[in-house]
Write a structure and sequence with these properties.
Keywords: Membrane, Transmembrane, Transmembrane helix. This protein is α+β, with helices and mostly antiparallel strands. The protein has eleven helices and eleven strands. α1 runs antiparallel to α6, α1 packs antiparallel against α9 and α8 packs antiparallel against α9.
Protein backbone atom coordinates (compact mmCIF):
# COMPACT_ATOMS: atom_id res chain seq x y z
CA UNK A 1 0.00 0.00 0.00
CA UNK A 2 1.37 3.38 -1.03
CA UNK A 3 2.12 5.90 1.67
CA UNK A 4 0.13 9.11 1.76
CA UNK A 5 1.98 12.42 1.27
CA UNK A 6 1.78 13.11 5.01
CA UNK A 7 3.15 9.66 5.85
CA UNK A 8 6.01 10.07 3.41
CA UNK A 9 6.81 13.50 4.82
CA UNK A 10 6.88 12.17 8.40
CA UNK A 11 9.00 9.23 7.28
CA UNK A 12 11.46 11.56 5.57
CA UNK A 13 11.77 13.61 8.74
CA UNK A 14 12.28 10.47 10.82
CA UNK A 15 15.00 9.24 8.46
CA UNK A 16 16.65 12.66 8.61
CA UNK A 17 16.62 12.63 12.40
CA UNK A 18 18.18 9.17 12.58
CA UNK A 19 20.85 10.15 10.03
CA UNK A 20 21.75 13.19 12.14
CA UNK A 21 21.94 11.03 15.28
CA UNK A 22 24.28 8.65 13.43
CA UNK A 23 26.61 11.54 12.64
CA UNK A 24 26.44 12.80 16.23
CA UNK A 25 27.40 9.30 17.40
CA UNK A 26 30.28 9.25 14.90
CA UNK A 27 31.56 12.58 16.20
CA UNK A 28 31.34 11.40 19.82
CA UNK A 29 33.12 8.15 18.96
CA UNK A 30 35.95 10.04 17.28
CA UNK A 31 36.40 12.34 20.27
CA UNK A 32 36.41 9.41 22.70
CA UNK A 33 39.04 7.58 20.66
CA UNK A 34 41.27 10.66 20.56
CA UNK A 35 40.84 11.38 24.27
CA UNK A 36 41.17 7.84 25.66
CA UNK A 37 44.11 7.37 28.01
CA UNK A 38 45.35 10.96 27.84
CA UNK A 39 44.15 12.04 31.32
CA UNK A 40 44.21 10.59 34.81
CA UNK A 41 41.05 10.34 36.90
CA UNK A 42 41.95 10.57 40.57
CA UNK A 43 40.38 8.13 43.00
CA UNK A 44 39.20 8.92 46.50
CA UNK A 45 42.06 10.32 48.55
CA UNK A 46 44.03 8.71 50.17
CA UNK A 47 43.24 5.10 49.31
CA UNK A 48 41.03 5.11 46.21
CA UNK A 49 42.91 3.97 43.11
CA UNK A 50 43.08 6.38 40.18
CA UNK A 51 42.36 5.35 36.61
CA UNK A 52 43.24 6.42 33.12
CA UNK A 53 40.34 8.14 31.39
CA UNK A 54 38.34 5.79 29.15
CA UNK A 55 40.73 2.93 29.94
CA UNK A 56 38.26 0.44 28.46
CA UNK A 57 39.03 1.98 25.05
CA UNK A 58 42.67 0.89 25.19
CA UNK A 59 43.85 -0.57 21.90
CA UNK A 60 46.10 -3.12 23.65
CA UNK A 61 46.37 -4.17 27.29
CA UNK A 62 48.78 -6.55 28.99
CA UNK A 63 50.05 -7.40 32.47
CA UNK A 64 53.52 -7.04 33.91
CA UNK A 65 56.18 -5.54 36.20
CA UNK A 66 54.87 -6.35 39.71
CA UNK A 67 54.15 -9.99 40.55
CA UNK A 68 50.76 -10.55 42.13
CA UNK A 69 51.97 -12.90 44.86
CA UNK A 70 48.63 -14.67 44.62
CA UNK A 71 49.44 -18.37 44.53
CA UNK A 72 45.75 -19.28 44.72
CA UNK A 73 44.96 -17.54 41.43
CA UNK A 74 47.59 -18.40 38.79
CA UNK A 75 45.78 -16.24 36.22
CA UNK A 76 46.55 -13.13 38.31
CA UNK A 77 50.27 -13.19 37.55
CA UNK A 78 50.89 -9.43 37.77
CA UNK A 79 49.32 -6.52 39.59
CA UNK A 80 49.96 -3.88 36.94
CA UNK A 81 47.98 -3.47 33.72
CA UNK A 82 49.78 -1.67 30.92
CA UNK A 83 47.54 0.13 28.43
CA UNK A 84 48.30 1.39 24.93
CA UNK A 85 45.94 3.90 23.32
CA UNK A 86 45.88 5.88 20.12
CA UNK A 87 47.45 8.84 21.90
CA UNK A 88 48.97 7.48 25.11
CA UNK A 89 50.74 4.66 26.92
CA UNK A 90 50.30 4.22 30.65
CA UNK A 91 49.60 1.88 33.53
CA UNK A 92 47.00 1.07 36.18
CA UNK A 93 48.10 -0.40 39.52
CA UNK A 94 44.98 -0.64 41.72
CA UNK A 95 46.78 -2.06 44.77
CA UNK A 96 49.30 0.79 44.95
CA UNK A 97 49.03 4.03 46.89
CA UNK A 98 46.71 6.73 45.61
CA UNK A 99 49.45 8.72 43.83
CA UNK A 100 51.01 5.71 42.06
CA UNK A 101 47.88 3.75 41.12
CA UNK A 102 47.98 5.00 37.54
CA UNK A 103 50.17 7.10 35.31
CA UNK A 104 50.96 8.12 31.74
CA UNK A 105 54.37 7.37 30.25
CA UNK A 106 53.74 8.76 26.75
CA UNK A 107 51.04 11.26 25.90
CA UNK A 108 49.94 13.29 22.91
CA UNK A 109 51.98 16.43 22.33
CA UNK A 110 49.23 18.99 21.84
CA UNK A 111 47.78 17.93 18.49
CA UNK A 112 50.98 16.21 17.37
CA UNK A 113 51.58 12.49 17.92
CA UNK A 114 53.43 11.59 21.09
CA UNK A 115 56.49 9.38 21.22
CA UNK A 116 56.14 5.88 19.81
CA UNK A 117 55.92 2.94 22.20
CA UNK A 118 59.42 1.45 22.35
CA UNK A 119 59.96 -1.96 23.92
CA UNK A 120 61.53 -2.95 26.18
CA UNK A 121 62.82 0.53 27.12
CA UNK A 122 59.36 1.91 27.94
CA UNK A 123 58.81 -0.90 30.44
CA UNK A 124 61.83 0.36 32.34
CA UNK A 125 60.55 3.92 32.07
CA UNK A 126 57.19 2.78 33.44
CA UNK A 127 58.89 1.13 36.41
CA UNK A 128 60.81 4.35 37.05
CA UNK A 129 57.59 6.39 36.95
CA UNK A 130 56.09 3.89 39.39
CA UNK A 131 58.96 4.84 41.73
CA UNK A 132 60.37 1.33 41.91
CA UNK A 133 64.00 1.10 43.06
CA UNK A 134 66.49 1.86 40.33
CA UNK A 135 67.99 -1.58 40.83
CA UNK A 136 64.70 -3.01 39.52
CA UNK A 137 64.78 -1.30 36.15
CA UNK A 138 68.29 0.02 35.42
CA UNK A 139 68.99 -2.80 32.97
CA UNK A 140 66.39 -1.18 30.68
CA UNK A 141 67.52 2.42 31.22
CA UNK A 142 68.79 4.54 28.34
CA UNK A 143 72.27 4.50 29.91
CA UNK A 144 72.36 0.70 29.74
CA UNK A 145 70.99 0.74 26.19
CA UNK A 146 73.92 2.96 25.21
CA UNK A 147 76.48 0.59 26.64
CA UNK A 148 76.30 1.21 30.37
CA UNK A 149 76.11 -1.54 32.97
CA UNK A 150 72.88 -2.47 34.69
CA UNK A 151 71.14 -5.37 36.35
CA UNK A 152 67.41 -5.65 36.93
CA UNK A 153 66.36 -7.18 40.24
CA UNK A 154 62.76 -7.15 39.04
CA UNK A 155 62.16 -10.65 37.55
CA UNK A 156 59.78 -9.41 34.85
CA UNK A 157 62.11 -6.71 33.58
CA UNK A 158 65.12 -9.00 33.94
CA UNK A 159 63.37 -11.53 31.70
CA UNK A 160 62.92 -8.87 29.03
CA UNK A 161 66.56 -7.85 29.35
CA UNK A 162 67.68 -11.47 29.08
CA UNK A 163 66.13 -11.71 25.62
CA UNK A 164 68.66 -9.12 24.41
CA UNK A 165 66.11 -7.58 22.05
CA UNK A 166 66.76 -4.93 19.49
CA UNK A 167 64.46 -2.06 20.54
CA UNK A 168 61.22 -2.18 18.58
CA UNK A 169 58.86 0.77 18.19
CA UNK A 170 55.12 0.91 17.59
CA UNK A 171 53.79 4.26 16.38
CA UNK A 172 50.16 5.31 16.00
CA UNK A 173 51.03 8.51 14.10
CA UNK A 174 49.66 7.37 10.69
CA UNK A 175 46.35 6.36 12.27
CA UNK A 176 46.17 9.63 14.22
CA UNK A 177 46.51 11.73 11.06
CA UNK A 178 43.79 9.64 9.40
CA UNK A 179 41.51 10.23 12.40
CA UNK A 180 42.25 13.95 12.12
CA UNK A 181 41.24 13.81 8.45
CA UNK A 182 38.01 12.09 9.50
CA UNK A 183 37.37 14.97 11.88
CA UNK A 184 37.96 17.44 9.04
CA UNK A 185 35.39 15.59 6.91
CA UNK A 186 32.86 15.78 9.76
CA UNK A 187 33.50 19.52 10.02
CA UNK A 188 33.06 19.84 6.24
CA UNK A 189 29.68 18.11 6.56
CA UNK A 190 28.66 20.69 9.15
CA UNK A 191 29.76 23.55 6.88
CA UNK A 192 27.90 21.93 4.01
CA UNK A 193 24.65 21.96 5.99
CA UNK A 194 25.20 25.62 6.88
CA UNK A 195 25.73 26.36 3.20
CA UNK A 196 22.61 24.45 2.15
CA UNK A 197 20.45 26.34 4.62
CA UNK A 198 21.83 29.87 4.60
CA UNK A 199 24.98 30.36 2.48
CA UNK A 200 24.81 28.61 -0.92
CA UNK A 201 27.96 30.46 -1.96
CA UNK A 202 29.81 28.46 0.71
CA UNK A 203 29.20 25.21 -1.17
CA UNK A 204 29.65 26.50 -4.73
CA UNK A 205 32.65 25.46 -6.79
CA UNK A 206 33.91 24.51 -10.21
CA UNK A 207 34.02 20.79 -10.96
CA UNK A 208 36.10 19.16 -13.71
CA UNK A 209 33.98 17.90 -16.58
CA UNK A 210 34.67 14.21 -15.87
CA UNK A 211 33.31 14.62 -12.33
CA UNK A 212 30.26 16.54 -13.53
CA UNK A 213 29.44 13.97 -16.21
CA UNK A 214 29.58 11.12 -13.70
CA UNK A 215 27.62 12.86 -10.96
CA UNK A 216 30.64 13.02 -8.66
CA UNK A 217 30.81 16.75 -8.00
CA UNK A 218 30.92 17.26 -4.21
CA UNK A 219 29.59 20.82 -4.32
CA UNK A 220 27.09 23.11 -6.01
CA UNK A 221 28.13 23.79 -9.59
CA UNK A 222 27.82 27.34 -10.89
CA UNK A 223 24.98 26.47 -13.27
CA UNK A 224 22.96 24.36 -10.79
CA UNK A 225 20.00 25.00 -8.56
CA UNK A 226 19.93 23.56 -5.07
CA UNK A 227 17.42 20.81 -5.85
CA UNK A 228 16.85 17.73 -3.66
CA UNK A 229 18.83 15.65 -6.14
CA UNK A 230 21.81 18.01 -5.92
CA UNK A 231 21.66 18.08 -2.13
CA UNK A 232 21.54 14.30 -1.98
CA UNK A 233 24.53 14.04 -4.33
CA UNK A 234 26.65 16.41 -2.25
CA UNK A 235 25.70 14.82 1.05
CA UNK A 236 26.31 11.32 -0.26
CA UNK A 237 29.75 12.35 -1.54
CA UNK A 238 30.89 13.55 1.89
CA UNK A 239 29.31 10.66 3.78
CA UNK A 240 31.06 8.14 1.55
CA UNK A 241 34.33 10.03 2.07
CA UNK A 242 33.65 9.90 5.82
CA UNK A 243 33.13 6.14 5.67
CA UNK A 244 36.35 5.64 3.69
CA UNK A 245 38.47 7.84 5.96
CA UNK A 246 37.13 6.34 9.18
CA UNK A 247 37.56 2.80 7.86
CA UNK A 248 41.15 3.58 6.87
CA UNK A 249 41.96 5.15 10.24
CA UNK A 250 40.45 2.39 12.37
CA UNK A 251 41.95 -0.33 10.17
CA UNK A 252 45.47 1.13 10.36
CA UNK A 253 45.18 1.47 14.14
CA UNK A 254 43.78 -2.04 14.57
CA UNK A 255 46.56 -3.56 12.46
CA UNK A 256 49.14 -1.74 14.56
CA UNK A 257 47.47 -3.12 17.68
CA UNK A 258 47.50 -6.63 16.25
CA UNK A 259 51.22 -6.30 15.49
CA UNK A 260 51.90 -5.33 19.11
CA UNK A 261 49.74 -8.17 20.46
CA UNK A 262 51.54 -10.71 18.27
CA UNK A 263 54.91 -9.43 19.47
CA UNK A 264 53.82 -9.56 23.11
CA UNK A 265 52.47 -13.08 22.70
CA UNK A 266 55.84 -14.24 21.40
CA UNK A 267 57.44 -12.71 24.47
CA UNK A 268 54.72 -14.12 26.72
CA UNK A 269 55.56 -17.63 25.53
CA UNK A 270 58.98 -17.09 27.16
CA UNK A 271 58.08 -14.89 30.13
CA UNK A 272 54.48 -15.87 30.89
CA UNK A 273 51.63 -14.09 32.63
CA UNK A 274 51.35 -11.01 30.40
CA UNK A 275 48.06 -12.06 28.76
CA UNK A 276 48.21 -9.49 25.92
CA UNK A 277 44.82 -8.64 24.45
CA UNK A 278 43.44 -6.44 21.72
CA UNK A 279 40.87 -4.05 23.17
CA UNK A 280 37.44 -5.50 22.41
CA UNK A 281 35.65 -2.32 23.50
CA UNK A 282 37.62 -0.27 20.99
CA UNK A 283 36.89 -2.81 18.24
CA UNK A 284 33.16 -2.75 19.05
CA UNK A 285 33.07 1.04 19.12
CA UNK A 286 34.82 1.20 15.74
CA UNK A 287 32.38 -1.30 14.25
CA UNK A 288 29.33 0.55 15.59
CA UNK A 289 30.72 3.84 14.30
CA UNK A 290 31.21 2.50 10.80
CA UNK A 291 27.70 1.01 10.87
CA UNK A 292 26.34 4.41 11.94
CA UNK A 293 28.05 6.12 9.00
CA UNK A 294 26.74 3.54 6.53
CA UNK A 295 23.24 3.85 7.99
CA UNK A 296 23.33 7.60 7.47
CA UNK A 297 24.13 6.99 3.78
CA UNK A 298 21.33 4.43 3.51
CA UNK A 299 18.76 6.67 5.18
CA UNK A 300 19.76 9.55 2.92
CA UNK A 301 19.14 7.41 -0.18
CA UNK A 302 15.83 6.09 1.14
CA UNK A 303 14.75 9.63 1.92
CA UNK A 304 15.55 10.69 -1.63
CA UNK A 305 13.51 7.76 -2.94
CA UNK A 306 10.51 8.90 -0.89
CA UNK A 307 10.92 12.44 -2.21
CA UNK A 308 10.63 11.16 -5.78
CA UNK A 309 7.81 8.67 -5.23
CA UNK A 310 4.19 9.67 -5.90
CA UNK A 311 0.99 7.74 -5.43
CA UNK A 312 -1.23 6.94 -8.42
CA UNK A 313 -3.80 9.58 -7.41
CA UNK A 314 -1.10 12.23 -7.04
CA UNK A 315 0.08 11.41 -10.55
CA UNK A 316 -3.50 11.98 -11.70
CA UNK A 317 -3.66 15.31 -9.85
CA UNK A 318 -6.12 14.09 -7.22
CA UNK A 319 -5.91 15.04 -3.52
CA UNK A 320 -6.10 11.71 -1.71
CA UNK A 321 -7.39 13.36 1.49
CA UNK A 322 -10.61 14.62 -0.09
CA UNK A 323 -10.95 12.71 -3.37
CA UNK A 324 -13.10 15.60 -4.57
CA UNK A 325 -10.79 18.35 -5.82
CA UNK A 326 -7.61 18.44 -7.88
CA UNK A 327 -4.53 18.46 -5.72
CA UNK A 328 -3.42 21.97 -4.88
CA UNK A 329 -0.63 20.96 -2.52
CA UNK A 330 2.97 21.03 -3.66
CA UNK A 331 4.44 17.78 -4.80
CA UNK A 332 6.88 15.84 -2.66
CA UNK A 333 9.67 17.22 -4.83
CA UNK A 334 8.57 20.79 -4.15
CA UNK A 335 8.14 20.10 -0.44
CA UNK A 336 11.55 18.49 -0.34
CA UNK A 337 13.09 21.55 -1.97
CA UNK A 338 11.82 23.61 0.95
CA UNK A 339 12.66 20.90 3.47
CA UNK A 340 16.32 21.43 4.32
CA UNK A 341 16.82 18.66 6.85
CA UNK A 342 19.54 16.20 6.01
Amino acid sequence: MALSPLQRKLTRHALAAVAVLCLVFTSASLLLTLEAGTLQLDGDYPTGPARLILSRLALVRFKGIIASGNDEDPSASYQVTLLWFLNAFGWEWPSASWDLSCGIVHNINGLLPGAALTLPADLGQTAARMQLPMSDWQCLSSNHANGGNGICHNPFLAAWDAEDLTPISFSTAPALWLFYFTGIVLFAILLQEIGIRWLPALISCYCPSFMSRNGLCPCLKTDEKLTPEVRTRMRTWYLVLLAISYTAASTVLTLKGLALVQFLRRMDSKIGGMDPQLGTTYIKLSAFTLIAILLSVLFLRVRRYLEQKKSWMEQQGVDSTTLTEPAAKPTDEEEATQDLLI
